[in-house]
Amino acid sequence: MKEIVKRVQEKQLKNGLKLILLPVSRSFTFTVNVSLSLGNLYEEPAKLGISSLLQESILKGTQHRNASEFAKTLESFGASARSSANYFTGKLIFEGPAQNWQAILELFFEAITKPAFLEEEVEKEKNYALSVLASLDDDPLKAAFMRFKKAFFGEHPYAFSSLGKIDTLQNLSRDEILNWYQRVYVPNNMVVAIAGNFEPQKLLEAFELQTENLPPLPAPEIQRENLENFRPGSQKIIERKKIKDSWLVLGYPAPSITDFKGKVAFDIVNNLLGGSMYSRLFLKVRETEGWSYEVGSIFLPLVGPSFICAYCGFPAVYFDKAVATLRKEFQEVTNLKREEFEETKNYTRGTLLQSLETPSGLAALFSFYEKIGLGWDFVFRYEELLRKIKLNEVKGIYTSYTGSKEAIGAVIPESQQ
User: Fold this and answer.
1) Which of 184, 172, 211 has the alpha carbon at shortest distance from 58?
2) How many angstroms separate the Cα of 230 from the Cα of each of 301, 305, 309, 373, 397?
């Protein structure tokens, strides 16, 4: 890992754009990964979902090529591009063969500096997002998870899908998308990590030339009311639906993504509970007791309020048993023994190391962690702490979060009593 760190080059352009370069001369690939501050946390309540719609529209044509022409040109170089938004960041990724890195980079600049946002393309993406939102409640597990988030977050924007809400999404116009693009795609709001086989000096010259006319502007800020709307408490939302079995999500507060040691501790706990085929929930609930056919856990570290939860699907008659079992498994974490702790820690470290094997994986991690303020090298500091963290430290951190503030979201059959 030290060898990787030594090869990384950092460059801050005059307009505030941050570049993180990782030349890998033996790589066959070239990756450009951009991270930006946007998403639910930065959106006004009436415009929830605008970041996701922006990200889905930005690759659908430029001022020089329509959507199909842009895609065809990209594919002619053996490359691909994708973009997305989550609760507090967005990403834009271009990758392809290293031999075509300069051509791929030119298309990247075209996409971020001259997007078209054609009315018909924006409407297509909006209609697709609306159809996805409308279908979320049709999946029982997603339905239970939606109710859990509502129970846990209340009116905080994290309670809603990153796609937004149907009523806010319907009212978004093409001009509003364009205005949001002009606010978030500013150089001082972008961290660009580039990895693979390329010539660093030529790449730097290209960035300076292509972005010299992009002035720094006020970057989007977290909506203050979005921080103030979160009041954690013990909430329970259970609704009846036309389904055969019950689905339950039960969880507790957890560390923010910016809580360095807390994230390490809860990654281990999550893998212990339900992160693998040999986790506690899987072995006890599915393999031993057999009353649930799908069970697991999720730790979602966010900027600000975060959670860890367990979920399961089961015949309706087992609802009380399911609640009691999940609750007990969370409590039993405090009785974790050293051997199981070390095994889970090794598994957690193994999954991390796998993500560091490719230039594209490293670029994604570098840009993301730099953007949220942890530094591009966070992943290496994380790995070091993961190796060194002790059982008593994990237990102490865990008990400081999982107390009485339990949230439950569930959907049950209409016939269940």
Assistant:
1) 184
2) 15, 8, 18, 22, 22
User: Which contacts (CB < 8 Å, 24+ apart) does range 201-210 have?
Assistant: 202/102, 203/21, 203/101, 203/105, 204/11, 204/19, 204/21, 206/102, 206/105, 206/109, 207/13, 207/17, 207/19, 208/13, 210/109, 210/113
Query: 3-class DSSP state for residue 198?
Result: coil
* Furthest C-alpha separation in the chain: 69
d(CA 281, CA 297): 8
Distance CA 346, CA 324 (A): 29
Q: Tell me the backbone φ, ψ of residue 333, rounded to 5 degrees.
A: -60, -30
pTM recorded for the entire structure: 0.92
Q: Centre a 10 Å sphere on the Cβ of residue 17 and count the other Cβ atoms it contains.
A: 21
Q: Supply the pLDDT for residue 160.
A: 93
- The pLDDT of residue 18: 96
Contact partners, residue 13, CB within 8 Å, separation at least 6: 19, 187, 207, 208, 211
Q: How far is CA 136 from CA 54, 249, 306, in A?
A: 21, 15, 22
